[in-house]
């Protein structure tokens, strides 16, 4: 949900070779079901549930990794991508 400017800065910093989606109006996170109620220290709020979607060139979702933990996740995704 970060701004385009924020994504551009992040992409440059990390030398990313692919586009990043900006969803400031929360349309995509809601459509994909990852804008959810959360709880921290007993307080309820809405936020994004970190989720990875593998989407093929035809727009078909091939795999979903819900509630992603960053550590080691990239290896799992890259291994799956080899099967496509």
Overview of the molecule:
This protein has 84 residues and is α+β, with helices and mostly antiparallel strands. The chain is 29% helix and 25% strand. It has helices at residues 4-13, 27-31, 73-81, and strands at 35-40, 43-48, 52-55, 61-65. It is globular, with a radius of gyration of 15 Å. The protein starts with a helix and ends with a helix.
Residue share in helix = 25-40%
Q: Roughly how many Å is the radius of gyration?
A: 15 Å
Percent of residues in beta strands? 25-35%
Oligomer: single chain
Q: Structural class of the helices, strands and pairings?
A: alpha+beta
Largest sheet, spatial ordering of strands: 1-2
**Anisotropy-based shape:** globular
The main pleated sheet reads as:
2 strands, antiparallel
Average pLDDT: 94
In the predicted model, the low-confidence regions spanning at least 5 consecutive residues are none
* N-C termini distance: 28 Å
- Total DSSP helices: 3
What is the succession of H and E elements? HHEEEEH
Number of strands: 4
Write the layout of secondary structure elements.
Layout: H1 4-13, H2 27-31, E1 35-40, E2 43-48, E3 52-55, E4 61-65, H3 73-81
Antiparallel strand pairs: 1-2, 3-4
């Amino acid at each position: 949900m970060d701004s385009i400017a924020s994504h551009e800065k992040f992409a440059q910093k990390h030398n990313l070779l692919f586009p990043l989606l900006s969803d400031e109006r929360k349309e995509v996170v809601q459509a994909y079901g990852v804008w959810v109620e959360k709880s921290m220290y007993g307080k309820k709020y809405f936020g994004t549930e970190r989720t990875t979607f593998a989407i093929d060139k035809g727009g078909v979702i091939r795999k979903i990794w819900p509630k992603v933990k960053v550590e080691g996740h990239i290896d799992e995704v890259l291994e799956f991508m080899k099967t496509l």
